[in-house]
Structure formats: structure tokens, C-alpha cells
Amino acid sequence: MSAIFNALPGLEVPVGSITRYLAQMWQDTAAKGGPAPATDDVKATQVNFVLHLGFNTSIEDAVRQFGTAVLFSKRAPCRVVVLCPLPMDDSGTEMRAKVYGECHLGKSKGDTRCCEFVLLSYPFPARKYLESQLSVCLIADLPLYYWVHRFASIHRLNDYQYLLRRSERILIDSAIADPEIFNFAWPRPEVVRDLVNARLLPVRQSIGQLLSGYAPTLLVDGLKAVKLTYDTKLSAEARVLMGWTRERLALCGEVGGVDFTSQPTAMGETGALKLVFEYTNGRYFRWHGDLARSHASIETDFGGGPSVMNIAVSLLKRDAALSDAMFF
């Protein structure tokens, strides 16, 4: 994690002087003619956002997620704290800090959006002081959002109850998380959001908007099987999509006798995600997605004759998925 801390951008500063250096950072930017918030403006900051990089995070991955946070800041000006814990066998003994900031100019002067980053690298013995340090780094009275990324063991989260209990949303990515994440005793499970589900928003919309045009009872009358096939790289998306489909159909009527099956595509089609409803009465629904090419075809017949539709669809981009998981 010290390598990750060193690889991420920012000016290293004394841990006890983070607030002063954040203010100085904007003053220096303004003096050089760069975009910076007004001194008496609280940088229009809307949220606190903690990105916690687990031990399974590589340098390349850390830089990528840091970039995701920067992109997200264009949507919602924020104070971001990036936590880079040191493994117990790391030689580091002291907490280190960096500060970093960006302002994004909109279509008007009043649309300037700024983000501030505080990066904290801390060794195992200093973990007990982290809550105190976070209280200095975070902006009081603003909501807190917490992104748990690539923890080697999800049970290590028990050491961060301050974040788990205070956060408005806790973000996970079940596609890359420790499998035990499904068994973790979240203090507030109602605030946990899965980025996989957020990435699937366009897919769920394309399916849901079409099926919403039919009477709910029509969707389950004679339904015998729901089959989902997928590219193995989309196994997490397939799991979440099948769960969502089963839940939605259950709201339409009885599905206890329906056969729900999910399996990888036989041909290993890249980006493939296919959802099919089979009926005993000859009706059908087929959603065939090619997410590698941002395309899907929909074939239906619910008694009014066959219909074919082609649409553009893809997974949400990283920053958009982050925003969706946070606020919806």
C-alpha cells in the first residue's frame, strides 16, 4: 500500500496540517490563474466520500479507481478521502498524508465544480487513531459515502464500525469482492449498494420498460422457464440480473413452479447476456444483449403476433454507476 500511496497524485504534507495545506492548495492554484473556488465559498462541496483500498488492490487498479472518483466529482463536488492501509508486515510505522484537488469548469462561471482529495496511508498500529483523523479530514454536516474496494477479507471491515454506522451508503462491487461479503453482518444492511446492480441499470431499464407495457398477469400466465446465458466475464451481472428478474416476476404473480436457470454461453460469446422467457402457450420473450458492441435485440410474442426490436444498450460507465449506487 505504500507503493499505491506513492503512485497516486498529490502533494505529501504533514498529517497534522492537512486542513491548512488544502486551503493553501487552492490559493496557489488561483494565484497561477487556474480554476479554483472562491475563498468564502465552501467549494460547493456536496458530499464526503471515502474510498477504502483493500490489500488486493494493485497499483494500476488504485490509479483507475482514483480516476473514477475524479470523474464522479464532476457530477457531485466532494471531499474524497482515500485510505491506503499498510499490511501488518509492512515496515511503515507512521501515518502519511497527501492532498490533491481539481476544479472542473462548466458552461458558466457559477458552474465550477471542485473536488478535494486527502490520501491517508496508515500502518496497522495506527488504525485505532483513524477515526480521529477522519473527523479532521471530512467536512462536518455533509453526508458520508463509503466505498469498500478489494478487501482481502471482508471481515476486516469490523474494524471500521465508525464508517459502517455513519455512512449514508456503503458501496461494494460483488464482481470482485471477497465471496464472504454475502454473509457479512452489516450494521445497516439497508444502506449497502452493489455496483454490479448499478452498472446493469440500462439493461434493467431496457427489459423493464418493454415488459411494463403488458399486464402483469400476462407475464406469468403459462410461464414455465426463465433462462439466462452469459459471457463468463459477466457472471456477477448475470447473477444480479437473474435475481432482479425473479423478484420482478414474483410481483406479477405466482412463479413457484417456474424453472429459473443460468449458465455460461456454450460458444463463449464476448459480452453476451441473454434472457429468455418460455411459455406453455406459445408466447415468448427473448432479450439478446451484445454488451461488447452496445447492442441488444428483443423478440416478443404475447399473443398479439411476433415483434422484433433492436436497441442500443451497454453497462453504465464507472462514474455513472458510482453516482447511481450512491444516490438511488
Question: How would you describe this protein?
Answer:
There is one protein chain. Strand 13 (295-301) and strand 14 (307-312) form a beta hairpin. The relative contact order is 0.11. The strands form two sheets. This protein has an eight-stranded mixed beta sheet, sandwiched between helices. The chain has a six-stranded mixed beta sheet with strand order 10-9-11-12-13-14, with helices on one face. The protein contains ten helices and 14 strands. It starts with a helix and ends with a helix. It folds into two domains: 2-187, no CATH class; 201-316, Glutaredoxin (3-Layer(aba) Sandwich), CATH 3.40.30. It has helices at 2-7, 18-31, 59-73, 130-137, 161-166, 195-199, 201-211, 216-220, 235-250, 318-327; strands spanning 11-13, 47-53, 78-85, 96-104, 113-122, 144-149, 169-172, 192-194, 223-230, 259-264, 272-279, 284-290, 295-301, 307-312. By secondary structure, it is α/β, with parallel strands linked by helices.
How are the SSEs placed, and which strands pair?
Elements: H1 2-7, E1 11-13, H2 18-31, E2 47-53, H3 59-73, E3 78-85, E4 96-104, E5 113-122, H4 130-137, E6 144-149, H5 161-166, E7 169-172, E8 192-194, H6 195-199, H7 201-211, H8 216-220, E9 223-230, H9 235-250, E10 259-264, E11 272-279, E12 284-290, E13 295-301, E14 307-312, H10 318-327
Parallel strand pairs: 2-3, 2-6, 3-5, 6-7, 7-8, 9-10
Antiparallel strand pairs: 1-4, 4-5, 9-11, 11-12, 12-13, 13-14
Helix pairs in contact: 3-10
